[in-house]
Every structure is written in structure tokens, then in C-alpha cells.
User: Which sequence fits this backbone?
């Protein structure tokens, strides 16, 4: 068997050529900032109580009156001596002031604190082709990708380029915002990685291949007891 020896100098040249070829190939990783980053998060306004929030009402001089209760769907809470109080739309400080005025009729110099234990208004929903669809608490600034990863990440059947954010408007309507997460993950365009707002719904649809597999399974495999294959590209026929 014939063997050829390469000197150490030639090995260095060969390795340099291989490294150069690898850098020119499509397998090289992108580096640097992603173009078109999303706008920074606005400064949050004081939280306003929403229907369904859980509130803790503390009385400093009469702790036996402390109570924790959920706000009713109509935005009202019921308290001894204060009776029914509309809390929805108020900040915790505004509600505290309202309760102080009401309890001042029955108690001397009442000192009251209002603590929001659960924030119904700071939730987003993530659904579609993710591992754990459901509700996520929006406790701080969070992007679309962060919410999806918190929901377990993408399923193999997900269409990253066709994700959507359903956003509620001030007039009660809804806006559907298309977000191309494939461009974000490829480092090409970061605009699709939106900063989420309360009540946003993130939806990741299935890919075309996933829809085809579902159609084949429902309408063919379950009705025709044979094994077969199919092609998606007409050029393969």
C-alpha cells in the first residue's frame, strides 16, 4: 500500500484552505445585531384594577377586618361596612382613597392598604403549534419569542414565518399583526419579535406540510387500509 506523507508546513496550508472554504459556505453563523429591532417598551402607566383580579385589603388598626377577595366579573367588590365598591378601572391608590372615605364613617382615622395579588390584566395567551399552549403572566417586558419559549417552544409542525399576534384595540376591536419569526431567528429582521401588551394573543399556525399530513391521516389513512407514500413536489413525479 502506497502512502503519501505531507509535511507540517503543507498541513498548515491545507487547514487554512479548509477554514477559508467553511467561512464562504452557507453554514457560517451570522454575527452582530439583527436589523430593524422593535421599538423600546413604553413606560408603563399605573396599573388599573381589572375584573377577576384578586385584591387584599389590609386595615392597620383593625387587622381582624383584613380580607382577600376576587373582584367580580362586573368589576365590583363587596366589603363589610363599605358595601359594594366599583374597583375596576381604578388604580390601587384610587381604590384605597375610596375605601378610606367610606370607612371613615364607621372607623376613626382608618389606615388601609390595597394590594393586588393576581393581575388578570397582565396576561397574554399563547396558542397553536407550541408545546404548552395557555396563559402567561406578563410580569415585565416580554417579546413574542420569549412568550413562545415560556410556552415550551415551537413544535416541529410550526410555521414560524406565519405567526400572528391578535391585539385588542381601545375601541373594543382587534388587530391582527403578522410576525415573521423565521426572519428573526435567522438574524435577518427583528421587527417580528414584538413587545407584547396585556391581553395579546400569540398564535403559531401549522406549516403546509403539517396540514397535508393531517389531511392524509384524516381522509385517507383512516379510510383506506393500505400503506402508501405521496410527493409534495410535482418535479419528483
Assistant:
Amino acid at each position: 500500500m502506497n502512502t503519501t506523507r505531507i509535511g507540517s508546513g503543507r498541513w498548515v496550508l491545507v487547514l487554512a484552505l479548509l477554514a477559508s472554504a467553511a467561512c464562504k459556505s452557507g453554514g457560517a453563523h451570522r454575527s452582530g445585531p439583527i436589523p430593524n429591532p422593535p421599538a423600546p417598551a413604553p413606560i408603563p402607566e399605573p396599573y388599573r384594577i381589572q375584573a377577576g383580579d384578586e385584591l387584599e385589603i389590609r386595615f392597620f388598626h383593625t387587622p381582624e377586618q383584613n380580607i382577600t377577595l376576587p373582584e367580580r366579573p362586573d368589576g365590583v367588590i363587596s366589603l363589610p361596612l363599605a358595601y359594594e365598591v366599583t374597583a375596576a378601572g381604578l388604580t390601587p391608590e384610587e381604590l384605597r382613597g375610596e375605601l378610606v372615605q367610606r370607612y371613615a364613617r364607621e372607623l376613626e382615622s382608618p389606615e388601609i392598604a390595597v394590594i393586588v395579588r393576581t393581575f388578570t390584566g397582565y396576561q397574554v395567551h399563547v396558542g397553536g403549534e407550541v408545546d404548552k399552549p395557555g396563559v402567561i403572566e406578563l410580569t415585565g417586558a416580554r417579546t413574542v419569542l420569549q412568550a413562545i419559549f415560556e410556552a415550551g417552544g415551537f413544535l416541529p409542525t410550526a410555521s414560524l414565518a406565519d405567526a400572528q399576534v391578535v391585539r385588542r384595540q381601545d375601541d373594543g376591536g382587534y388587530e391582527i399583526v403578522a410576525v415573521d419569526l423565521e426572519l428573526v431567528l435567522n438574524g435577518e429582521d427583528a421587527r417580528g419579535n414584538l413587545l407584547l401588551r396585556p391581553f395579546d394573543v400569540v398564535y403559531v399556525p401549522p406549516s403546509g406540510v403539517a396540514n397535508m399530513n393531517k389531511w392524509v391521516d384524516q381522509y385517507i389513512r383512516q379510510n383506506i387500509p393500505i400503506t402508501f407514500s405521496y410527493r409534495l413536489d410535482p418535479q419528483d413525479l
About this structure: Residues 123-210 form a domain with the Outer membrane lipoprotein wza fold like fold (CATH 3.10.560.10). The helical segments are 8-24, 92-103, 144-150, 181-185, 208-221.
